[in-house]
């Protein structure tokens, strides 16, 4: 029987908050990605202690679901963890997904630090004082680069921010998370918090590093990727899931998706996606048909296509084997009559995979 160790982390400011440029390396590295470093520490613990529980420390499999898969994918590129695992499983997530990392970490923490009085006049670190009332804020500015492509740099930092970490650590967790929830937003389909480009654990050219694998870390171990039939139920509300939605609402969601995820040729991309995911042999479409089309669009664009891209890149090296599985779960039609053809419980494949192994 395999031994399963569950590593938990919070996908919020406490795990991924950018805290300013680090010491004398202010122009090259940033503080953050605490959740990733916690996982590295846990992997060290497993290597040192798993034998006492009857586990083989030379057969450690790193498995992640959604954001966990993103972190596992980034660890495949990190030399700091290269000898701590021997196989990787990515379920419903990868570093190439548009939501895989935060793109406005510096503006986020500057806004937060000023509100909590850890920055004076936007530049000088301060000790925390009485926080002003939190009245909310507008959406973040539109990102300046593509979400995922093979080649080039993604989200590199161009300026520095004073080290506000010591000040923020004096703020209570409740006050910090309250400020985060009221102040910080992200465009739809993108991440408010998650891994950030710190030039240490996650490099600005991680996409090119994955493609060319100059270090040999990415293709060093066997990789299994898994996906469910539909990965995007969380993007729609319960009413739309159960009753479907009109074409006008579908088109608005699609426009938002294209605007936030892509950079160039937005009209052409919008028209192409809408055409490819429309069943032209069925002239009259009910609300359920329209719902299914937008679910398929979001599933492919946000999760499945990036996963396949990671698998193709891994297999092209030929250093280790690459595997793929597809999970489909048929729910009880008496309970969910309108979702019988879809994998409504799309997160169950993580549980099934654990049981089978």
Automatic annotation (TrEMBL):
Q: Which UniProt keywords apply?
A: Glycoprotein
Against SUPFAM superfamilies, the record matches this protein to: alpha/beta-Hydrolases (SSF53474)
Q: Which domain of life is it from?
A: Eukaryota
Q: By its UniProt entry, which PANTHER family does this protein fall under?
A: NEUROLIGIN
A Pfam family for this UniProt protein? COesterase
Q: What is this protein called?
A: Neuroligin-1
| Compositional bias ranges of the Polar residues kind | 121-136
Q: Where is the Carboxylesterase type B domain?
A: 20-339
Q: Which family does it belong to?
A: Belongs to the type-B carboxylesterase/lipase family.
Record bears the keyword Glycoprotein: yes
The UniProt annotation puts the region (Disordered) at 121-143
